[in-house]
Write a sequence for this structure.
């Protein structure tokens, strides 16, 4: 499998997560994986560990469509003492800062605007990669049999951040055994700290989101049980309120960013307006990454569940024969399949961030007028739009579909629920919105309502109307929907 550049970020130093593995939160397997035979489950777990690690030992799998983040800089000066990098701009001129006993690596600057001393101090365990940028001196080259003059091709050295001294701006680096790293460096070599965004994102997520959305992003954090509207389980890779077209499976980066900033009105999902934008960006990446981890697990499951579930083992004439079949299939197909799954994920998430994936009407909004509202209401009640079948003629969210047995979304067509009502992809009952309240979870701007109608609400039975209705018609419906709360008040007089 193609995981050539996977780097494990070890042991996060956090109030919540320590090296103490008994307290460290871990990623849970989904209920689906629990249904696999033990031998198949073990492989799924192994793959997830290899590609994603655990909250305390994150893995940077560079094939994924995630900005893992990195700091990079160049070595300015070298001295004999190992295990230390000095970060900062002043050391060249500032005599006091240039202690001859310590190596000085200068200009370690943030690539994505993330460099701050506070943040570096959160990077315990991050990978430090040192690559030769310059040819060795003639004498050194000689002793290497004159083989390589330009040593760019040398394997990079990989170490870990042990700690960061904010006052001294010193980064303490250790080798695989945890001893101060004996770094072989020359001035000009490049230094990279990899996976910084993922680690920061993890820290912020555990602080702000985990108690509702869960460590694994399964929507089952400790406080989730108290809510009627459940926190989103990211592992399906589906977000309900997106700006993207119905054919685009994923939300854009901006969509997730906006949800975090604004929250989901009318639910317990709070607004994180007060968090700085760069922190919200880091959390966004982490949420995307958790979603991809969940999707990878689902894809592995979908492949294995029919033939290698626990049920299949129980029913098999010979369990050991089944396991032998599994071993063969796994050794023949796992590499290709996992590469394909990863590639599909990459394309899907990339797709969502293309400008053409966003729903942007080409016709400007029809100004709201009683004519437009009347036209909108007509469409709302019409057979082609069927809004009223779910939302009801009075738009209170009590249409006939709420009492019928409906097809389950995300399942093969014709798969009905065993209870009446509308369900979402996560198996939760969803009530069509009561549109008289004027509370819109996906935002109340006219363009938000337009996008809801054009693309539907992903993962729910509310389908897309972008092909059934013309743009002008959608604007009429938007005008109608936005007028409903006022119509209601007038009606009460
Ligand atoms: C108090 C509980 C709570 C906290 C804390 C919380 N959420 Fe949520 N979140 C929810 C609930 C409930 C929903 C589901 C809303 C719905 O289905 O309409 C949700 C939904 C979401 C969604 C999906 C929205 C969609 O369109 O499908 C995202 C993304 C999300 N939350 C991210 C976060 C992130 C990131 C954090 C931390 C910065 C966070 N949440 C903190 C409860 C919470
Ligand atoms: C098959 C049932 C169904 C049909 C048909 C349907 N909806 Fe919905 N609608 C829902 C459900 C369910 C929700 C709530 C989804 C959720 O939040 O999980 C919803 C939510 C909404 C919302 C709230 C969006 C928000 O941001 O909170 C609006 C507005 C809306 N629908 C308008 C319409 C309009 C207009 C039509 C017709 C063009 C329509 N719906 C057709 C089921 C339906």
């Amino acid at each position: 499998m193609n995981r050539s550049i996977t780097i494990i970020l070890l042991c996060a130093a956090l109030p919540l997560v320590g090296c103490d593995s008994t307290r460290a939160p871990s990623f849970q397997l989904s209920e689906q994986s629990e249904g696999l035979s033990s031998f198949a489950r073990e492989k799924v777990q192994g793959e997830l560990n290899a590609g994603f690690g655990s909250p305390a030992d994150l893995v940077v799998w560079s094939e994924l469509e995630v900005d893992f983040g990195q700091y990079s800089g160049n070595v300015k000066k070298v001295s004999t003492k190992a295990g230390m990098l000095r970060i900062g701009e002043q050391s060249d001129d500032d005599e006091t800062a240039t202690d001859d006993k310590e190596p000085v690596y200068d200009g370690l600057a943030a690539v994505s605007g993330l460099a701050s001393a506070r943040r570096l101090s959160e990077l315990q365990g991050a990978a430090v990669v040192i690559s030769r940028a310059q040819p060795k001196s003639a004498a050194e080259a000689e002793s290497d049999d004159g083989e390589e003059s330009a040593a760019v091709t040398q394997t990079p050295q990989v170490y870990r951040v042990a700690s960061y001294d904010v006052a001294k701006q010193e980064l303490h680096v250790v080798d695989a055994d945890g001893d101060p790293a004996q770094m072989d460096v020359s001035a000009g070599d490049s230094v990279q700290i990899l996976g910084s965004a993922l680690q920061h994102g993890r820290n912020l997520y555990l602080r702000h989101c985990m108690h509702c959305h869960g460590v694994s992003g399964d929507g089952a954090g400790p406080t989730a049980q108290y809510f009627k509207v459940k926190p989103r389980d990211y592992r399906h890779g589906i977000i309900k309120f997106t700006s993207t077209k119905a054919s685009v499976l994923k939300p854009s980066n901006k969509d997730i960013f906006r949800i975090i900033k604004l929250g989901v009105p009318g639910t317990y999902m709070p607004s994180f307006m007060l968090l700085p934008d760069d922190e919200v960006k880091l959390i966004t990446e982490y949420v995307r990454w958790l979603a991809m981890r969940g999707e990878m697990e689902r894809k592995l499951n979908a492949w294995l569940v029919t033939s290698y579930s626990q049920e299949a083992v129980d029913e098999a004439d010979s369990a050991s024969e089944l396991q032998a079949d599994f071993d063969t299939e796994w050794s023949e197909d796992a590499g290709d399949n996992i590469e394909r799954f990863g590639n599909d994920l990459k394309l899907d998430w990339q797709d969502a961030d293309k400008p053409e994936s966003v729903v942007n009407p080409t016709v400007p909004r029809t100004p709201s007028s009683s004519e437009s509202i009347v036209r909108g209401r007509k469409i709302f009640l019409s057979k082609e739009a069927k809004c009223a079948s779910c939302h009801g003629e009075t738009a209170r969210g009590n249409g006939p579909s709420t009492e019928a047995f409906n097809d389950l979304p995300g399942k093969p067509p014709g798969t009905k629920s065993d209870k009446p009502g509308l369900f979402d992809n996560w198996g939760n009952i969803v009530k069509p919105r009561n549109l008289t309240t004027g509370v819109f979870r996906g935002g109340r701007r006219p363009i938000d309502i337009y996008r809801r109608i054009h693309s539907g609400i992903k993962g729910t039975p509310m389908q897309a109307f972008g092909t059934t209705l013309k743009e002008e018609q959608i604007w009429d419906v938007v005008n109608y929907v936005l007028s409903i709360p006022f119509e209601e008040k007038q009606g009460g007089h």
Observations:
- The pocket of heme C (ligand 1) is lined by residues 208-209, 212-213, 223, 227, 229, 231-232, 239-241, 256, 259-260, 264, 267-270, 272, 283, 287, 441 (CB under 6 Å).
- Residues 1-5, 10-22, 90-101, 145-152 have pLDDT under 50 and may be disordered.
- Residues 385 and 469 are 8 Å apart (CA to CA).
